[in-house]
Amino acid sequence: MAVVIGRLLAVAFLICFGTGLYSHLLQNPLPWVTFPTRPVWIYQVTQGVHITAGIACFPLLFAKLFAVFPELFQHPPVRSLAHFLERVSIAVFVAASLMLITTGLLNTYQLYAIFGFSFRLTHYALSWIVVGSLAVHIGVKLPVIARFWRRGDAEATLETQPDPDAGSEVPDELQRRTGWGPDHGVTGRLFAWIDRSPAVREPRAADQTRRGFLTTVAVATGLVVTTTAGQSFRVFEPFNVFAPRRRGVGPQMLPVNRTAEAAGVLESATAPDWTLTVVNGPVREVYTRSRLRAMPQHDAVLPIACVEGWSQDAAWRGPRLRDLLDSVGAAGDAHLRITSLQTRGGFAVTQMQPEFARDPLTLVALELFGEELDIDHGFPARLIAPGRPGVLQTKWLSTIEVIA
Ligand SMILES: Nc1nc2c(c(=O)[nH]1)N[C@H]1C(S)=C(S)[C@@H](COP(=O)(O)O)O[C@H]1N2
Ligand SMILES: [Mo]
Q1: What phi, psi does 8 have (nearest 5°)?
Q2: Among 17, 73, 222, 260, which is least packed by CB within 10 angstroms?
Q3: Which of 212, 239, 266 finishes a domain?
Q4: What are the UniProt keywords, alphabetically (predicted)?
Q5: pLDDT at 102
């Protein structure tokens, strides 16, 4: 049982780890990594899968803890140095995993305030601790896992050989494994009682118990996934009961992550003398709204794909970023620093790699769904690029600088 659920949990963890690393790298790029910009929804899918697999970890992790619960109270608690290290790695693994999925879940509900620490750094550091202790744990448990894989042969052997214990009292398997027995006070008697459950005594009843348990876990996992995945995947939308965001709800039918008021830009973004400055060393071009409007306008249907798990496609219109970069003679491999008018909170300054800056679908968006941008969506101008997390789609643009 522990192996079966452990395997599902390991798959979910590895999916989360891979998609999480991808998201982390997009936000903390390495100079030699070039990201794909097609399909335009690539980040929508990796992040949707990340959040959905992360939510599935809750029932799976609890089921796993339940299946191995008596083992947590082994007696004696430590038998050898190797045993001690194994138990420490499990303690670290359990604590870090619970913390990892809990911080992730709270993040999808935007409950950053209750952490008092940087969500992203903590979530990232914990993921390495979990993967490291998972590797140790799997290494230590390899013999048990191997025995499970070979169980077909073992069962065949059992069937053909007479049971040496037949007729005699069935050995207290749990007591033998854990060392806890009726002599060990209340806990010992409790475990001795668990030991007497049909799951241990009668193989047929044990099969039924196992099947019932696995069905419960499957139903629980299916339920939490279908009632939250609607924020990322349209097919699940009608069942979106618990996920915090809903498609189509917000100004211009698009949810808002940080409002203009929260960002402190109500005045600066509506000022008649607003300009966007594009800088390449000593060269500088100043764009007013009418100058931006006079440039060739392009349309792009690109999603906002928030790291918090919600995503939605939207139709954007505006000049291409690369046309602005050409006007200051920026090199084709130029990296950019993008600054918002924002005065409060994170994401006021972001960076952009050349593959996104040069992409024909990367726009300085002035319109959303055929209307002038709502102030909460970044009026007068915002960036929109394919394949990037929402946090990097900077609203209320102020300056765009070539940095390398
Ligand atoms: N200047 C600025 N731009 C920003 C943000 C911000 O806080 N400040 N939030 C980002 C985040 S986290 C997301 S998901 C998208 C959401 O865009 P929307 O609010 O127009 O839907 O905007 C991004 N652009
Ligand atoms: Mo976001």
Answers
A1: -60, -40
A2: 222
A3: 239
A4: Membrane, Transmembrane, Transmembrane helix
A5: 93
Using CA atoms, how far apart are residues 19 and 25, in angstroms rounded to an integer? Answer: 10
Task: Look at the alpha carbons of 274, 393, 252, 246 in this order and tell me if their dihedral is positive or negative.
Answer: negative
Q: What's the CA-to-centroid distance between 390 and ligand 1, angstroms?
A: 6
Mean pLDDT of the chain: 86
- Assess whether 233 and 268 both reside in one domain: no
What CATH number corresponds to the domain at position 358?
A: 3.90.420.10
Residue nearest to atom 21 of ligand 1 (CA): 256
- Give yes or no for residue 120 CB within 6 A of ligand 1: no
Q: Is 309 in the same domain as 222?
A: no
Residue located nearest, by CA, to atom 6 of ligand 1: 347
Decide if 164 is inside a domain.
no
Regarding the beta carbon of 394 and ligand 1, being less than 6 Å apart is answered yes
| Residue 48, C-beta contacts closer than 8 angstroms, at least 6 positions apart | 229, 231, 232, 233, 305, 309, 311
Range of the domain at 346: 255-402
Tokens 């299916």, residue?
A: 222
Which residue did the predictor score with more confidence, 192 or 382?
Answer: 382
CA-based nearest residue to 47, from 229, 227, 301, 235: 229
